Amino acid sequence: MSSDFTVVDASVAMDYVGKTVLVEQVWAGDPEPLWSVIQIVGVVLPYQGTYPHGHFLVAPQGRNDKYPDEVFFSDIRTIRVMRHRDRQGSGNVLDRIAHPNLNGSRAALPARRNSLFVTSNGSTGAAHP
């Protein structure tokens, strides 16, 4: 549990129950963040004097475990509710995802088009005046 500030706390945690989310987790001993798509099935709220560490009970996508995993509020850097998932499983989030350490171009690609003659990045290959 490594965050200096908390993205999720007890006041907003219940809003995520039953939702599929894209979450970025970070830990002090690991320089690389972990991105996961998870289903939030429950919440354990912090309780002073008993258990001060609030966390989500989650079911990771693609696994049918008998018991849920835990994702601690203090390990979450970014969390976004998923709107839907497409056939390729890439997903579509409601909001823009914050990437704090982006390198390279930030140019936007054209929207994906549903056509056999248009490549996945939207380019038709033809010159436009």
Write a structural description:
The chain has about 130 residues and is mainly beta. Helix content is about 5%, strand content about 35%. It is built from 1 helix and 6 strands; from the N terminus they run αββββββ. The protein has one helix at about 10-15; strands spanning about 20-25, 30-45, 55-60, 70, 75-85, 90-95. The chain has a 6-stranded antiparallel sheet with strand order 4-3-2-1-5-6, with no helix packed on it. The longest helix has 4 residues, at about 10-15.
Question: Largest sheet, if any?
Answer: 6 strands, antiparallel
Portion of residues in beta strands equals 25-35%
SSE class: mainly beta
**DSSP helix count?**
1
Give the topology.
Elements: H1 10-13, E1 20-27, E2 30-44, E3 55-60, E4 69-72, E5 76-84, E6 92-93
Antiparallel strand pairs: 1-2, 1-5, 2-3, 3-4, 5-6
Overview features:
1 helix; 129 residues; single chain; six-stranded antiparallel sheet; mainly beta; globular
Short description:
The model is unreliable at 93-102 (pLDDT under 50).
